[in-house]
Automatic annotation (TrEMBL):
Record-given protein name: DNA 3'-5' helicase
The keyword DNA repair is assigned to this record: yes
Stretches assigned to the UvrD-like helicase ATP-binding domain: 1-405
UniProt domain UvrD-like helicase C-terminal: residue ranges: 412-692
Gene Ontology BP term (one): recombinational repair
UniProt-listed Enzyme Commission number(s): 5.6.2.4
Amino acid sequence: MKNIQYISAGAGSGKTYRLTEILSERLSSGFCTPSEIILTTYTKAAANEFKTKARRRLIEDNKLIEATELDNAKIGTVHSIANIFVNRYWYLLGRGAVANVISQSDKNFYINQSLAEIVTAKQIRNFAELREEFNFWIKAEGKSDAFFWREHLSKVIEVIDSYDIESLELSRQRSIEMIDTVFLNDVAKCDYKSIVDFLTQAKLVVVAAGKQKNIDDALNGKTDNYAFLLSAQGVLKKFVDKDKAELTLFNSTADSINKQLRGTLFGEKLKKYISVIFELAQRWKEKYKEYKQKNNLIDYNDMERIFLELLQNDVVKSEIQSDYKLLLVDEFQDSNPIQIKIFDILSELVEETIWVGDPKQAIYGFRGSDAELIDKVSEAFPSIGEPANAIGLSRDKLHNSHRSRGKLVNMTNSIFASVFSADIDLHLIPKREKDEFNSAPTTLHFESSERKKSDHFAALSQKICELLAGKGVISQVLCSKSKTLRPINAGDIAILANSNNDVDSIAAACRECGLKVSTAESDIMQFAEIQLIEAILNYSINGKGDDFSKAEILYLMNSESVEDILSDRLSYIEEREEDTPKWRHEQFQIAKIDSFIVKCQNQSVSEYVESLVLELDICEIIKRWGDYNRRKGHIDTLQQMAKAYEDRALQLGLGSSINGFLVYLSSTNSNDNPFVKADGAISVLTYHKSKGLEWNVVVLESLENDSIEEQKLLQKGMFGVQNYRDEQSTELYAQRYITLFPYCWGASNVPAEIAATMAQTPLFLKKTSTILNEQKRLMYVGITRARDFVITSAMSKNEKKWFQNIGIDEDQWSTHSHIIPISKGDEFIPLNCEPYYTEYVKEAKERRYEPKFISPSQINKPIAAEPQIVYRSGQRISIANEDMANIGTCLHNIFAIYEQDATDNVAKAKRIISSLEMSAAIPSEVEVIGSMDNLYSYLTATYGTPKAIHKERAVIMELGEQVLNGSIDLAWEWEDGTVIVDYKSFPGREDIIMKEGGDHYAGNYLPQLVAYQSILESSNIKVLDTLIYYAVQGVVVKF
């Protein structure tokens, strides 16, 4: 490492602003050009945001050339930057053609498939015997874990792949050491018969029915394994002194069982299993490497590893040294070990390196970041304010908090001074010095008297409704744009919880109160409303012959029984002839879906999903099912996921499609569902997902969470698959090792004697410290999301264990807080906050759930028009005139997929014409594409290169008692405004379209275009011109 400035950027301190400032300063001074800059971010969204803000800053600084050339800078995630250099220097690796990148979903699919190949039938039988021996259990689901070995193996594979662990020998040794710590009694093979005899006798002695049932349960299963001994131990623990006195062999039997439960014979079985799992993992790693080489593939982890390998090459080092001068690293605290090595080496090749981060916000350890390594790297830097050391390492700090209210910043400084160690820089100076809220408290505490968590969440949701109605202590928040106070609304509020289960429950409670909710609810695919939409999407792709999707749709829509549907389908198959129509084609719901598909097939994915919900009355259907608010919330989440999918496809330079969206849904981990803020919606999410976001009011839930309670820490932090830095290594980049210890105690807690032994081990103490520090940072992130107010929320019966564990002084906290009792009101009337769906919407007057939708084309109010022909291409599309309706649909479909200068436009047009059986009506796909080429050339020549092109853009606007609902064929957008283009397929002469009063008069369409213009302008989108393109004639008409 050398010539690095490490900037500490606390929450809300203006990190992005500072990075753009540095960039502009270096470019203005001539230190570097855009092409000599590398900047890494944690996410693609952050990279895009930085590019936008940096370009804006350069324009403000009158650096127009640099702003134009900013795309030459290497700005992106570490993966994307690594991939650029890997492709550039691939030839130096001697691996043949440049490899393709395997997607994470494809990699996961390969892992699942390959596990079945590397595990033998004998090993699977051995695993089954081990499961029966120890009764491995899934506590969350309350059932035996038949596939425990698959989970262990998959997790080991994930860790060795993420951390590039070459050898598993150290991991095997450390795992065996843990087993030996627990299973240390060198006892003879267990005499199970004597224990069975004892329990049989004991049943005759004890009189309590419950104890007799416990004995029966222990004796009913296998009575010669570890699980039996564990059950027997549980039975004996419930005996009282009177029982023990009457059973002369009680003490000796209990002692024998306790010793056997820690016997080395059982330990040997576990050690043998551990060795097999590590051997299989090593074999998988080799097999995966061969697979990638054979198929010329690399994955995302390979990108970083290969880049690191290339950085050892003299040619690469020399060229980077001559080509790049500035390296900027954003969110340094979230870096994984390989990334830190990359930054380390790059700092020695470029002239200046700046790392920006905040160790207090390092909360992504579960994704591979290494807070412990970050701390060790930080030790090489001098303190803030000291001069750079001999190798050019220095520290700086962003001193001001621009986000939060002054009192809140000062409270956070004070509270966390006793939480974090003295060497962690904490203090921020509030820029919002004036307190806009006068005497309003800094924090509130909602304390409920409820005994059940579900009732507590209901009480919290009802109290939030009161705040939104202006009945609470908090009634106003500070507008971030105008810097003036305004009434609080739902979008100003976030509720943070520690688990996905709590997020789901809180979101459901909020919806029951009529609140609109934005959340990344876990595993929404299991719900019927989502399965219905999924079935319709599948039917949209597969067509009228997709009887499976039809059956699912009919089952969900009509509540028809599966038996009736299958019987009807079988009858159809038996009776159908060659000319028999498609099954159930006449069914009202199917016919309605067919009509919808034709109408909306050219929309984007997110628009299509949105239209599907509206046009097919999905919300009316789910009202009949009950639990409406939660189901509607799932649909909102699905719509947000559709938008997230489109954004992801755009970032990757890929096309988006309904089929791609379905694949995306199937491959998305339920815990990784995106969180997207929605206007007018309360945000409900985990603390982890809140990072990088902010709200005026933040509610902190899950304060009763005791992450370091001994049993919880043992079960989640010591058993299963864990990984650690090698504590015996003196290397900065110490190798990591894995521990595997199957949880052997079924649905029970770890036995007290074993728990006491494990709690004294160095690994347990290390894990306790690690989790405690993570919880400190997580709470800091949660509190610093708030701009104006923090609210804590808890049941009065529960202690705030989270605060207690991390060292927050509750007395000190209470001096800033105002306590408000809350309770669930049975007579509470839910708010009427029916959702709206549109991208372009006027300020809502009264939202109606069942508006009367009309299309802009249905507006027949005459408007004086002066159409004029402004362009003639001189080329026509040859068509057969008799089928104009279907010809128009076909042309619209082709125009929707057309991309300017794309080489496959003609081929796509041919496929569409063929699939719609329109080859006779439209004989030349070349002429069709030529017509669009002419239109785009005219628009470019007249208005300039567009910033964005929107096809089939869905628009909605309230119009009195009706709702205007339609789509703009083409919106040509650039910096100065938007041009609206409507397609018409009328093939007649020019004089007919210009003849006022005629059926085909161009002016007849002006009300439709004016409606589109009004919708866009209501959203502050300037419309420059409205045009009609008569595609068959090649004529443009302007109004």
